[in-house]
Amino acid sequence: MADILTPALGESVAEATIAKWTKKVGDPVKRDELLVELETDKVSLEVVSPADGTLGEIAFAAGDTVTPGAVLGKVTEGAAAPAGEAAPKADEAKTAPAPKGGGDASVPVQVPTMGESVAEGSVGSWQKKSGDRVSKDELLVEIETDKVAVEISAPANGVLTISAEAGSTVTPGQVIGQIAASGEAAAAAPKAESAPAKASSASNDPHLSPAVQRVVAENNLDPKSIQATGPKGNITKADALKAASQPQAAAAAKAAPAASAPPRETGPREERVKMTRLRQTIARRLKESQNTAAQLTTFNEVDMSAIMALRNRYKDAFEKHHGIKLGFMSFFVKATIAALKELPAVNAEIDGTDIIYKNHYDIGVAVGTEKGLVVPVLRDADVLSLAGIEKGIGDLGRAARDGDLTLDQLQGGTFTITNGGVYGSLMSTPILNMPQAGILGMHNIVQRPVAIDGKVEIRPMMYLALSYDHRIVDGKEAVTFLVRIKEHLEDPQRFLLDL
Q1: What angle do CA 290, 292, 293 make, to 5 degrees?
Q2: Extended beta strands in 362-476, E state
Q3: Tens digit of pLDDT for each residue in 161-170?
Q4: Torsion sign across C-alpha atoms 152, 155, 156, 159
Q5: What is the crossing angle of helices 475-490 and 329-342, to 10°?
Q6: What are 179-218's pLDDT values in tens digits?
Q7: Which of 32, 132, 362, 470 is catalytic?
Q8: Which helix (H) or strand (E) holds 291?
Q9: What is the pLDDT of residues 419-431, one digit of tens each?
C-alpha cells in the first residue's frame, strides 16, 4: 500500500480543504495520475498517485480540512506496477522523507484514532530523536488529548525521522514521522507544519476552510449568518463572497463585539505557562456547566461515629480477607446508591426537552492528579460489595495517577462523588459534572461539640454538600437525598440489610 500524502502547502499555509476526488475507491490508477484537488486560501494544489495500482482507501471526503503530511488515502499497488520506482517528484519530496538504499520504503508514523469526539491532540516529548534507530513496538511518543494520553509505538524496525515536534497540534491520521525500514537514516525533510490550535469542539462557530476564513476576515462577516451550501453543511468560498456582497450583512458584522485583547506582558517575577489540554478541558467544561444548569447546593452534616467504629472494628480482618484496606468511600457509594434508587431524578439527565432516567448506577469518583482533575467511572456500582467498590476505586485511582485511563473509563457516569476532605476541605459547593444532575461533596471529618439527647458531646462530624440541577431536581428531592445519605451513614446496618 502506498500512502497518498498532503503535500507541503507553502509558507504560512497550515491547512487545506479537499475540493474533489477524481477517482473513487476501487478505480485503477496510474503513477502521477491526478487523484485529488486541494484548495488553500492562496492556491489550489493537485495531488497525484504515488504508484500504479488501485485506489484502496479515501480517508478524507470533499469538504474536509487536512494538514501537511496527512494521509489522504492509500493506493494498493498492482502487479503491473514498475519494479523499481523512479525518483519522487519535487512536490512529493517536500512531503515525506525519501528513503535511501534500493527499493526499501519508509514506514509512516501516524496519529491513531483518539476516540469519539476527539479531533486533535498535542505531541508530547519524543522518546527518540531524528536519526535514532528504533525497534518495532518501541514507544516513540505520547499524544496528549483533552481526555487521555495516547501512546504511539514504532510500526517497524529502522531509523526515525521526526516531522512533528513536541507541542505541535496534530489530527488523527496525520503523519508525524517516518521510519526508514532499510535501516539507514532517511533523507532530511522539512518538518510538517502543525495544524493551528483549533477552536473548542464545544464552540458553536461553523468550521471554515482557509479560503473562507480569508473572505470572512477581510469583510468582517459573522460566519453564523452565512447560508452554507457546501458538503456536510460547510460554508464555501462562494457562500462567503455572496454574503460579503450584501451590505446589511457587512453592516451587522461590523457591529459585532471587538476581538479580545492580546495577552498582557509578564513582569520580571512572573512566568507564563501554556495550559495543558486537560486543564483547558476542565476549565471549559466547568464553565459550560455553570452556564447551562440551574445549579444549587444544599448542605447537611453527618455523625461519622458509627462508620468509624465499624471500620476500626473490622478493618484488619477486612484487609486480611479481601487484600485491600477498608476506607470510607465504599460506605458513601453504598449510601449514595440507596438514595439514588429512592430519588431517581438525581440520577437523571436532561436531553433537549426530555428527561432521561437511568436505571443503572455508574458512579464517577473525582481523582486529583498532577495534570489536573479527572473523574473515572465505577461501573454498575450497585451490584458491587464493599470490597469490590474499594478495589474498583483503588484501580481507577492508580490508573488516573499513572495516566493509564482509557476513554471508556472517563465517560458515561450517572452521578459523581468528590472528596475534598482528603485535602482538608471543611465545606465547598462542587460544580456539576454535566450532563449529570447531581454531585456529592464529602469533606473533612472534624471533632465538634454537638447536642445529643440534651447533652453536649464531642463527635466526629462531616459536612455533606449536594449540588444539583434545579431544572429537574426540586429542593425537596435534594434535601431528602442528603437526609437519606445521612441516615444510612449514621446507621450503616440500613444499607447492609437493604432497608
Answers
A1: 75
A2: 363-365, 367-368, 373-374, 377-378, 415-419, 438-442, 446-452, 455-469
A3: 998 888 888 8
A4: negative
A5: 140
A6: 886 544 444 444 444 444 443 443 455 666 656 776 777 7
A7: 470
A8: helix 277-292
A9: 999 899 999 999 9
Whether 474 sits among the annotated catalytic residues: the reply is: yes
Please state, in angstroms and rounded to a whole number, the distance separating the CA atoms of residues 358 and 362: 10
Please tell me the pTM assigned to this model.
0.54
470 is an active site residue: yes
Round to whole Å and give the CA distance between 467 and 476. Answer: 13
Average pLDDT (295-317) is 94
Provide mean pLDDT across the span 33-38. 87
Average pLDDT, the chain: 81
Q: Are 420 and 442 in contact (CB under 8 A)?
A: yes
Residue 1 has pLDDT above 70, yes or no: yes
Q: Which amino acid is at 116?
A: E
- Which position among 27, 205, 408, 474 bears the catalytic label? 474
Any idea how long the chain is? 499
Q: How far apart (Å, rounded) are the C-alpha atoms in residues 113 and 120?
A: 9
Task: State the pLDDT at residue 281.
Answer: 77
The answer on pLDDT for 253 being more than 70 is no
Region of 424 please: left (phi>0), alpha (psi -120 to 50) or beta: left
Contact 328, 380 (CB under 8 A): no
Sign of the CA dihedral 203, 289, 333, 397? positive
Please report, in angstroms and rounded to a whole number, the separation of the first and last CA atoms in the chain. 64
3-state helix, strand, coil in the chain (%, to 5): 25, 25, 45
Classified as helix, coil or strand, 319 is helix
Residue 394 neighbours by CB distance under 10 Å: 14
Report how far residue 492's alpha carbon sits from residue 499's, in angstroms, rounded to the nearest whole number: 10
Of 314, 365, 357, 300, which is closest to residue 496 (Cα–Cα)?
314
Backbone angle region of 26, left / alpha / beta, with phi > 0 → left and psi within -120 to 50 → alpha:
left
